[in-house]
């Protein structure tokens, strides 16, 4: 079999086609979002540039085998922690540090390129490290017991707590929630007994519910004792009662609800928008889609995400390598949570956390981080096809 035919057989054309569809939707939605004139910048060339960089990242990532990523997982994890530590110790007054909405989460890039958010890449690095830990643990403890499961949970917790605390000190609640979603998913697929998982999930749900209850009925304790920042506090109250904060923090949500609602069934047509939505090219891009293409167009976008997640899940079930399976599961959890949280916050189902819509929202860090994750998926498919019917590397 020649090399070209091997590549054709091993490349994931379905995933590539889905990315092409997301590119088209992204450019159309961003182009329309710009008509409000909120910024005097044309974001289309920039988004196209980040997509090209993302494709290069996929190509570079794809040609390394999953086994190589397994061997390098600890090194990659450590490299990912370095910029997070630097952000935590550098004063925000330095020009190299970019601060937005009270969060010190970005580095300025030279030559006017923009900024980069290290946490977006750390998500994938973290998944690689946890997948390696799970695989090694199962190799060392082939007989599963409650004690061994608890030990695995401690190992995962140790990996989780460092990047999570660094990200929360920025502070970046949205990205912190993504890390929690990834961790929960990997704990479940790792096969840890439900005797351990259920109490933890119950405690987490109780904590979350308790915080919301305190925000509503124990405001002095919530604000003063827990030390919740004014920005985070405003996010919570504007989610629960946006119309009481219509002139400030609630503006985003009210504008988003008005835009999506005004689209009705079929929308107002491409670039037929009338409702002004702040940050509509980034976090609130779904409001643009809902207003212009209505319930039908918004539903088609959601269906496209379901197709993506279904395809990734189907591929994961075909993988024979445990490490690849855990990595793919973590990536699926990451993308799924991003989609659910972003769309949920635009319709008041969930609080606003600043999480972008994967592959559609404008943003270089988010797009490149997601492309890096999909590059690992491409790698798994590419090399899995090579060895599917045998162990001969020359097949």
Automatic annotation (TrEMBL):
PANTHER family: CELL CYCLE PROTEIN, PEPTIDOGLYCAN GLYCOSYLTRANSFERASE MRDB. Its main location: membrane. It comes from the Bacteria. It holds the Pfam family FTSW_RODA_SPOVE. The chain crosses the membrane at residues 49-65, 72-94, 106-129, 150-167, 173-193, 200-218, 293-311, 323-340, 360-378. It is found in: Membrane. Keywords: Cell shape, Membrane, Transmembrane, Transmembrane helix. This is FtsW/RodA/SpoVE family cell cycle protein. InterPro entries: FtsW/RodA (IPR001182). It is a multi-pass membrane protein.
